[in-house]
Design a protein that fits this description.
Cofactor: pyridoxal 5'-phosphate
CATH architecture of the largest domain: 3-Layer(aba) Sandwich
Low-confidence stretches: none
GO molecular function: transaminase activity
Radius of gyration: 22 Å
Organism: Mucilaginibacter agri
Family: Belongs to the class-V pyridoxal-phosphate-dependent aminotransferase family.
Number of helices: 14
CATH topology of the largest domain: Aspartate Aminotransferase, domain 2
Number of domains: 2
InterPro entries: Aminotrans_V_dom (IPR000192), Aminotrans_V_PyrdxlP_BS (IPR020578), PyrdxlP-dep_Trfase (IPR015424), PyrdxlP-dep_Trfase_major (IPR015421), PyrdxlP-dep_Trfase_small (IPR015422)
Length: about 400
Amino acid sequence: MNTSALSNEEVKQLRAETKGTSEKVHFNNAGASLPPDVVVDTVVNYLYEEASQGGYETEAKYQQRLDETYNLIARLINADKDEIAVVENASIAWGLAFNGIDFKPGDVIITSEMEYTTNLLGFLKAKQAHGVEIKVIPNDEQGNFSLRALEETITAQTKLIAITHIPSTAGGMIPIVEIGKIARKHNILYLVDACQTAGQVPIDVKEINCDILSVTGRKYLRAPRGTGFLYVRKEVQDKLRPLFMDGHTAQLIDENTFEIRNDGRRFEVYEKSRATTLGLAKAVEYALNIGVDRIWQRVQYLAGILRDQLRNVDGVTVHDFGAQQCGIVTFSVKGTDAQTVKNELAMQNINVSVGQARNTLIYMNKNHLTSIVRASIHYYNTGEEISKLINALLAIIANK
């Protein structure tokens, strides 16, 4: 395994393979990364072939490559291909698994203050429908998830530990490996939302000890929008009920009986975009060829530079905290709301995003934040681009 730092020459080559880097300074990778040209070509060429040869005929021609998607994803997260379902996005993946859990009145769901809005909505729906209880583990004064508080919160009624590894509107990270050890010790179902993790941070589901992992393609994996995947550990697949079925999910034995398939594809349906599935596969392969360890090393390096430089700008407050931080850098500019900052940067061809309170509601409310500027780094970003962002912010502050 190559763990050496990406060289300047490699970064130049990777940028040359990504058309968008010549047009924009893109710091919105936590929203949607710029895809490599080969991913775009894979999708477009497949669509052209569908248009000229027919959809089913093209699928038959590329069946082996479509099936290889599951092997590539399994390599990415150290799973078995029979534990993978290809779906449209992380929210679909998360919802398919979560809503397949057999909740009973009095069951307890444990989560963190960093949980994403869609997942919180799922908890509240389960509370209304099944009478479950939701317990939130707050971060400590240093901004770290408290493993001790987690241990103290677990009871015989604890049904699920559901954790978002990297939150939407903060640069801190939740210790999912250590949480997994606790979940396994107590034999509690463990669900990890890794939508910001895959393609940025190395993932090993065996090391995490998770039962379920949900991932989107469009973020750090640099895959097309409308792609994602779900991992469900083989041993728990029968414990989750499929929310709906088609002839792909199950097969009819006779007119009165059916049998659900015995792998992870029971959680997907037959009809999906074959073009974007191949795009997802190509994006995963691209990340694997670079090495996710190397990607993570560069992301941390660049994010560290950005945070240091932001902290030296009078009028800018960096909001990231915690022992381990990722490529998402959040900050605010005194006297200028986040949307205005985003708009002014866009005029300079610099993409950032705005993190709203609703995206990570518990955390944002606790820290009295209504919105923040989110600049999310990827390996194809450069120090020169960081300097452009800093200079643009200095100009915004000077012109207030």
